Amino acid sequence: MSRYTFGGDEHVFVEVDEEMSLEAFFTSLAMTNAVREANIDGVIEICPANASFQIKFDPDKIHPQKMMDMLKEMEQTAEKKEAKLDTRIVEVPVYYQDPWTHETLMRFRERHQDPNGTDLDYAARINGFDSVEAFIKAHHSAPWFVSMVGFVSGLPFLYQMVDRSRQIQVPKYLRPRTDTPKQTVGYGGSFSCIYSVRGAGGYQMFGITPMTIFDPKQEAPYLRDFMVFFKPGDIVKWRPINREEYDSINADVQAGRFEPRTKDVVFSLDDFNADMDGTNAKLMEALYAD
């Protein structure tokens, strides 16, 4: 049963679960889709998150208690909906151990749990890997599920698509940095992310992607319809690249020649839970079918 609370006079916050899971994501997705499809007079904004969502409404058009009661009715319907999603899988190139995030993480070492190593050294050690290389392989081998987009414009949060015993867990920095390079691939808790803009941050830094994911000017060909690339439900496959390929892709991005590899897929939560590795293998087959 979800927890419902009012946020001031104009918001209802719905916590579907206390922890992130794909089950919580699909319940939240079904409920927010139901609110959108109902076209309720007075609803101003629908804001989905990892295992929760928030509705902003106009109390002059709909009474707060009526708004909350309608959401509770929608939860009963949402729990019966099939957890299946028409979505896409996207390949994201990542330059692990790049010089830019390395320079930044060394500049803020006094704020880290391990002042004498790197973020990857620390993450590999506390997750029981023998080497940074083995940890990097674990990070990019299985696909990731975009569970929400936000915090800052265009920033995707990604949930690792393996069973919980194999999920990577790394705490955030002890104190946040005041700088993070744009398009850093970061990690905090059980979530990976891509910093869409340069700025402060507390997630561990593993690498960087040359792929633009947020473009307010919409100059990138694949962002001309919308300035934000990712949306909840996208599936991501990291692909490790070296400095030479990073420079080549970056040149293509700057020249407007780069197009991310994407394929349309159907994701079924029941099929995934029945056979996670088999489902992930089929997703990879779809991504690299040609």
What is the count of β-strands? 12
Tell me, rounded to a whole number, the average pLDDT: 95
Low-confidence stretches: none
Largest sheet: 7 strands, mixed, barrel
- What is the CA-CA span between the terminal residues? 44 Å
β-sheet strand percentage: 25-35%
Content-based structural category: alpha+beta
Shape: globular
Largest sheet, spatial ordering of strands: 5-10-8-9-7-6-11
The helix content, as a percent range, equals 25-40%
Helices and strands, in order, run as: EEHEEHEHHHEEEEEEHEHH
Counting DSSP H or I runs of 4 or more residues, the number of helices is 8
Can you walk through the features of this model?
It is a single chain. With 290 residues, the chain is of the alpha+beta class. Helix content is 31%, strand content 25%. The chain is built from eight helices and twelve strands. The protein has helices at 22-38, 64-78, 99-107, 119-126, 132-141, 243-255, 269-274, 276-287; strands at 3-7, 11-15, 43-48, 52-57, 84-96, 144-149, 156-160, 184-188, 191-194, 204-208, 235-240, 262-268. A seven-stranded mixed β-barrel has the order 5-10-8-9-7-6-11, surrounded by five helices. A hairpin with a 6-residue loop joins strand 6 (144-149) and strand 7. The protein is globular and about 55 Å long. The relative contact order is 0.15. The model has no long low-confidence stretch (mean pLDDT 95).
